[in-house]
Design goal:
By secondary structure, the protein is an alpha+beta fold. The chain contains 4 helices and 5 strands.
Length: about 130
C-alpha cells in the first residue's frame, strides 16, 4: 500500500484508468493525503466556474480537508457505502456535476463526474489507484 505522504499513482496511469472506467465526462481528478494535494486533471467547465486558479485550489483544498477530517474523526460518513472494509466513498450532486470522494488507507481521491455516472466502478478503480482492493 502506498504511503499517505509518499508517491501516489502516476497521473497518466490514473487518468487512463479513470477515463476507461467512466461512462461520461470526468471534469476533475485530485488525490490527497495527510499533507499533500495533487490535481491530476481540471476540465474547462470547472476552470470557468471559478474566478481564478487560486480560488479553485482553495475550494478543493477545503473540500479535501473536510472530507479527511470526517473520515478520521468518525471513520464513516452517515450514508457512506463501503465497498470493502478499508474503502469508503460518498457521492453528492453539486450544480451540474457529481462529486465523488473515495477514501482508502489514508489517501483520498476527489472526482467531478456526470451526475448520472455509475459510481461503483469508479470507486473500484479509484481504490485500486489509491492502494486498496
Amino acid at each position: 500500500m502506498a504511503s499517505v505522504n509518499g508517491p501516489g499513482p502516476d497521473s497518466d496511469v490514473a487518468m487512463d484508468a479513470i477515463n476507461e472506467t467512466a461512462q461520461g465526462d470526468v471534469s476533475l481528478v485530485a488525490i490527497y493525503g495527510a499533507t499533500s494535494f495533487n490535481l491530476f486533471h481540471v476540465g474547462e467547465a470547472v476552470r470557468q466556474s471559478f474566478g481564478s486558479k487560486p480560488e479553485l485550489i482553495d475550494h478543493l483544498s477545503e473540500l479535501a480537508e473536510e472530507t479527511r477530517r470526517e473520515f478520521m474523526e468518525r471513520g464513516l460518513f452517515s450514508g457512506l457505502s463501503p465497498v470493502q472494509n478499508s474503502v469508503e466513498y460518498q457521492f453528492d450532486e453539486e450544480d451540474s456535476h457529481g462529486v465523488l470522494q473515495v477514501y482508502c488507507g489514508g489517501r483520498g481521491m476527489l472526482l467531478f463526474v456526470d451526475p448520472d455516472e455509475e459510481v461503483e466502478p469508479l470507486v473500484r478503480t479509484a481504490s485500486q489507484l489509491l492502494g486498496g482492493m
